[in-house]
Structure formats: structure tokens, C-alpha cells
Design brief:
The chain has 226 residues and is mostly helical. The chain is 69% helix and 5% strand. Strand 1 and strand 2 form a beta hairpin. Helix 2 runs antiparallel to helix 3 and helix 3 runs antiparallel to helix 6. It has a two-stranded antiparallel ribbon.
């Protein structure tokens, strides 16, 4: 698994350049291409990020979002939806609430722009890609399944993470450039890289579940638990 992490480390510049070049090509259909720039930054290896003009919210948007967030919290806690759904919606609404309050009182003092956001996003994603083989490798190490299936699971998880990260990256930049910066906290904290752990745990759980069904009641294999 360390070999996979090292490989990702060395291909980081190429992968991040591809992601940003792809994002630029897509976003050029909606925004002037001469305003979209790919910038090189230093990290574990050189990485590439996207920079383009951001949009501040219209004057009525912060108070409207504030009221909408309060209403969402009030209504959702009275529903009979599953607790995880309620918690996630309340959490997202609180993030929007805080963001709207900031723009109501400190409209022109928001400290981040699209360049800062893309840099944080890419750096976080690169860290996740590097540590997926290490974390999942440790979790799978005690499982008596074939090494090829374990490596396959890790590689599949990394590929899924990169594809999801690319799609999400383009969508996030579009929202920030076309709607406004007021949604930046929501995008990062509710839909951003922290959600990667959901599918990492999900894919690991699916693998364990399928493997458990496969070995059935074979007590010779289940001895590894004792």
C-alpha cells in the first residue's frame, strides 16, 4: 500500500494539472476563458489550482439566506425524517446561517476568493488520495482475503475519489463564480472533501459485507477474529 501512496505522490503534478485543465475547458463554456487561469503552487509536490473572478452576493441574498436557514432548522426538526438526514440538514443550515450573518455585517471583508478555495480543495484532495492506501491498508491488513482483492479495493476507491473530486471541483467553482461566495462555507464543510470519508467507509463496509457472505460459516477462516 505504501507503493500506491508513493506513486500518487509522484503523479500529483500531472493529476492536478489534468483536473484544472479539464475544469477550465468546462467552465470556459460559461465564463470568459481569458479570465480563467491555471496557477502552479508548491505542496508535497507541485500542484495546480484554478483562479478566476468570484462573485459577491446581491444585497438581498444574505438576509434571505439567513431567514431560509432559520426556517429550515425550525421545520426539519419537526419532521419524521431519519435522524442522520435531520442532523445533516440542520448542520448545513447552521453553516449557511453563519455565512449569511458574516455577509450581512462584514460584506466586503470576506477573506477568501476562488483561488484560495481551489488551493485548499486541491491540497485536501491530494492528502486524501495519498492516505487512502495507508488507512485502508491498515484496516484490511488483518482480513484473511487475497492481497489482489485488497489492492483492487484501494485502487477502485482512489479512482472513485479522483472522479468525484473532479466533478465536485467543477461544480463548486461554477457556484462560486455564478452565484456567490456566500455559499463557499457550505460547499466545503457540507459537500467538500470531508464527505470523502463517507464513501471510503462505505466501500470498506461493502467489501467486508461481501467477504463475510462469501466465506459463510467456515470456522477455519473466522478464527482470524479470535
Amino acid at each position: 500500500m505504501l507503493v500506491l501512496s508513493a506513486s500518487i505522490y509522484f503523479i500529483t503534478p500531472s493529476v492536478t494539472f489534468f483536473i484544472n485543465d479539464f475544469a477550465k475547458n468546462i467552465l470556459s463554456d460559461y465564463f470568459p476563458s481569458d479570465l480563467i487561469n491555471i496557477i502552479e503552487k508548491s505542496f508535497v509536490k507541485d500542484i495546480y489550482i484554478l483562479s478566476m473572478p468570484e462573485k459577491y452576493p446581491e444585497p438581498l441574498l444574505p438576509p434571505a439566506l439567513f431567514l431560509f436557514s432559520l426556517l429550515s432548522i425550525f421545520l426539519i426538526i419537526k419532521t419524521k425524517l431519519p435522524a442522520p438526514v435531520v442532523i445533516w440538514i440542520v448542520y448545513s443550515s447552521i453553516v449557511n446561517l453563519i455565512s449569511s450573518i458574516f455577509f450581512i455585517f462584514f460584506y466586503d471583508q470576506f477573506p477568501y476568493n476562488i483561488e484560495a478555495f481551489t488551493e485548499l480543495y486541491i491540497k485536501t484532495e491530494v492528502n486524501i488520495w495519498i492516505f487512502i492506501p495507508i488507512i485502508m491498508g491498515m484496516a484490511l491488513s488483518s482480513l484473511p482475503s487475497r492481497i489482489f482483492s485488497k489492492v483492487g479495493l484501494v485502487v477502485l476507491t482512489i479512482i472513485y475519489s479522483m472522479i468525484l473530486g473532479l466533478i465536485r471541483y467543477v461544480a463548486f467553482i461554477y457556484v462560486l463564480a455564478d452565484f456567490s461566495l456566500i455559499f463557499m462555507p457550505l460547499l466545503f464543510f457540507a459537500f467538500g472533501p470531508f464527505m470523502d470519508f463517507v464513501y471510503i467507509v462505505g466501500m470498506y463496509s461493502l467489501y467486508i459485507s461481501n467477504y463475510a457472505k462469501k466465506i459463510g460459516k467456515d470456522l477455519r477462516i473466522w478464527k482470524w477474529l479470535s
